[in-house]
Amino acid sequence: MKACTPATEFLRIKTLAEQGVPQAQHSLGFMYFNGDGVPQSHELAMAWYRQAANAGLAHAQYNLGVMYQKGQGVEADFAEAARWYRLAAEQGYAAAQYNLGWLYAKGHGLPQDTEQARHWFGEAAEQGDPGAQNNLGMMYETGKGVPQDAALAVHWYRKAAVQGYARAQFNLALRFDKGDGVEQDSAQAIDWLRQAAAQGHAPAQFNLALRHDKGDGVPQDSVQAIRWYRAAAEQGHVSSQFNLGLIYDNGHGVPRDEREALEWYLRAAAQGHAAAQNNVGQRHEHGQGVPRDPAAAAEWYRKAALQGFPSAQYNLGLLYDSGNGVARDERIAIDWYRQAAEQGHLRARFELALRYETGRGVAQDLRAALAWYQRAAEQDYAPAQYNLGLLHDRDDGPAPSVELANGWYRKAAEQGHALAQFTLALRHDNGQGVPRDFTQAFAWYRKAAQQGHARAQLNVGLMYFAGQGTAPDMAQASHWFMLAERNGEAAAGRYLREANARQGGALVPLAGAPVA
Predict the structure, then answer these.
(1) Would you call 153 helix, strand, or coil by DSSP?
(2) How is 347-405 classified by DSSP, letter by letter?
(3) What pLDDT sits at residue 509?
(4) Would you tell me how many other CB atoms lie within 10 Å of the CB of residue 352?
(5) Looking at the predicted structure, is the pLDDT value of residue 249 above 80?
(6) How far apart are CA 389 and CA 373, in angstroms?
């Protein structure tokens, strides 16, 4: 017996279809839709699906709904799609029940109705449709259209996950990770992540990459991190693209590669990732991996700044402040500084405080300066802490207070701010707002002196010379006088000669002495 050829099979099905057999009409529509043995034609596919659908064939009704939803062979029409899905759904066709639920959830083609969405997802889920099971899980997780119930969410996610549905595997992993609706179990979380990632689910791949990147629940492994970031990035997952850029930028687990970093930043930036846009701007501003182009930098900063990214707002402000790549405009610069500062950007807050203190580009306002210095100081920014101390020290300032000034000087000094260390030393030296304490004064002078502060070097020398706050030591005194003189303190020369004389005129080199 000879096997049917595709042409013979087509003629057989076409004959049956023309005789009004619904199954044959659906099969003929399917052949035209896929170009199976005939030239592909969505229009003819729709015509034959419609005849089968009008005869009540559920899967033809479903396929007709899909074509209306996607605009295949006809103008897209969600309402008409919903009509055909409903006819199939009411016959128990699970895929149509799922799609009808989705249209209700989104409000496409019919009024948004979470109760109807839950109903149709539930009907499909009970028949084992994994997409509907996953969506039902999401509804129970968020309490959208149903009472929130984490355990029921896990129940439905698991049903879909064991069928290999990647989205449900990812959602189940997150529940195990947080212990939400199920006992917390990192090993189970990672296992479900791996299953979803292996199927190409980009969010799972990103999550798995993050874990390998940080050593979170798995051994730190940059090779595995890059593998999974890349798998997700190649699918357009924007955070993976950005993180790959960071990895190549910092040489974390791979040789540092500015060109590769820029490529991934650009791909993320093109999708609107604000941090990537800011990084692309920095590369154009500084000529890092690309020719230096401040105008291009300004455009990239602007894209990120308009999304509210504070670092880009600050960087754009700097360009307007200097007229670099854009026309110089102090007013626009200050506006960008303010937007960044209001979002907590440290340097923008400090810059805005400086403007108000000095009246540069804005009306001088010491109270506003104090407020912005305070915000930056509370973020442990030592220059702001020092300047806040200076402002509290001013008798004409908005809040004169020696005690507050000294408190901020100490905070800055403890972070290594040389001017604050010198100022705090002076306070202990003179007993200004603190008990007079030469030992404390000497300790703070020395810290500032070791950072090259010339006046502090002179004062350290004087305290060694006089034995004040420390034991007398002419060799040490000479050393510090010499550094102070070298750094411009003219008075240090006279003391240096006297200290040398007191030790017999020979300046003995000090092993391990601080470098100016």
Answers:
(1) helix
(2) HHHHHHHHHHHHTSSS---HHHHHHHHHHHHTTT-HHHHHHHHHHHH-TTSSS--HHHH
(3) 43
(4) 27
(5) yes
(6) 9
Residue with token string 């087509």 = 10
Confidence of residue 275 (pLDDT cuts 50, 70, 90): very high
DSSP SS3 for 402: helix
pLDDT of amino acid 101: 96
Kindly state the tokens that stand for 361: 């580009």
Q: What percent of the chain has pLDDT over 90?
A: 93
**CA count, 13 A, side-chain hemisphere, 192:** 26
Q: Which amino acid is at 73?
A: G
Closest CA to 156 of 182, 129, 137, 177: 137
- Condensed to tens digits (0 to 9), the pLDDT of residues 192-243 reads 999 999 999 999 999 999 999 999 999 999 999 999 999 999 999 999 999 9
The answer to whether residues 371 and 357 touch, using CB atoms and an 8 Å cutoff, is: no
For residues 431 and 465, the answer to whether their CB atoms sit within 8 Å is: no
CA-wise closest residue to 42 among 19, 75, 11, 5: 75
| All residues at 6 or more sequence positions from 280 whose CB lies less than 8 Å from its CB, including other chains | 262, 265, 266, 269, 300
Length of the chain as a residue count: 516
Element (H, E) at 432: none
Rounded CA separation 394/405 (Å):
9
What whole-number distance in Å separates Cα of residue 353 and Cα of residue 37? 75
Pick the closest to residue 47 from 63, 69, 58 (CA basis).
63
Residues near 452 by beta carbon (within 8 Å), at least 6 away in sequence: 418, 487, 516
- Assign residue 149 a region: left if phi > 0, alpha if psi is -120 to 50, beta otherwise? beta
pTM of the predicted protein model: 0.83
Q: Which amino acid is at 187?
A: A
CA distances from 493 to 309, 452, 486 (A): 53, 17, 9
pLDDT number for residue 510:
39
Distance between CA 326 and CA 50 in Å, rounded?
A: 61
In angstroms, the CA 86 to CA 68 distance is: 13
Chain position carrying tokens 């405009």: 329
Question: How far apart, in Å, are the Cα atoms of 286 and each of 164, 169, 247, 301?
Answer: 48, 44, 20, 13
Nearest-angstrom CA–CA distance, 207 and 130: 22
> Which pair of tokens denotes residue 4?
């049917």
